[in-house]
Amino acid sequence: MVFPLPLQAQITNVTDDTSTPIPGAGHNYLGELNEAVNPANGSVSLRLQVPVPPGRRLTVPFSFEYNTSGIQHPGGTAGHMSWGNDLGYLSKGGWSYAVPRISVIKDSKSVPPPPYPPGQQGEFCNFFSYYMLQDLEGQRHALGLSVGEKNTYSNWGICPPAGLTGDYLSGGDDYYQDSTSAIPSGHIACTPPVNVVDADGTVYYFSNPYTHIGELGYGDSLPSWIEDRNGNQALFQDSGNGAFTITDTAGRAAVQSSGFGDISGDMVTMSGLSPYHINWETVQFSYFATGVDLGGGSYCSGFGGGTNGTLTSIQQIELPNGQSYFLKYGNDDPNNSNPYGLLSQISYPTGGWVKYTWGMSSPIELLRFDDSAGHSNA
To answer: pTM of this prediction?
Structure first.
């Protein structure tokens, strides 16, 4: 008979089987899917953080993110309300690639406000406002900028209209300061470059904040570059349609995306790893929701009746090691369906799963979209 003796032993060397896992080091490609549920409104957010090789002092992180609060939300321009879905670049069906970017909304005001004398009509003064930064940590910041046309294509010659008498060329919050320049007088609406600086001296530079134009005047852009206070710079090459490359401070292609939202599949590659394969599906939604015209003006239009259509959402995320996360939405699972096209199940590589059920909330939220004459709808 053999009697093994129990022994206490001290680790004498750091080897593959004794080392403590370090985020971003070694074969740490699985990452962790973090889930958060807001008990106040029931919204769900997911984040799958991807290990990006560290750069020299400056590293641009990357993650796959899902947020139900960005799906089927009311939006609109002056005097008009509609239902919108993820209006930003690199956003579809609640999913997004989390990289730094800026967003801005283009709108217009009638000059002068209607109604007009018989045989006459007004002109439009275009302006850009609601500048928002999504920073390296994924946090959003209102930049407080606004620029507009001046005496452009207007027979009345009074752009900007009353109430929009000046540009706001600098702004920020407790964490960021930003600046831009005015649109030259007589030029058509464009967005001059924007500089954003954080408290640590890191600079985000956007050469054209209105690169990718979406619905309802919404547009956004990736930065041209990000530079820390020591001069270390990460470069962004945006090829459109969700294809981009982030070159880190060491000159490596740290993050490469082949595209975004392609039903035939996309790939995202981190330097030193095999690609992440992203497979998408088309999700149906159909339910009743309505908006109400409060002003009664002929220049306002509310939204009435039901809403239906399709979303494009991620069905599978295949990791570099061949394991996968699988996701279901809407009516994918007849035993756990919802009419909203929202996430109904996550299946983990380990075999575990989480299911979600949804219903319409009872409180009514009020949003106002005033037209150029001051009429409102909600």
So the answer is: 0.81
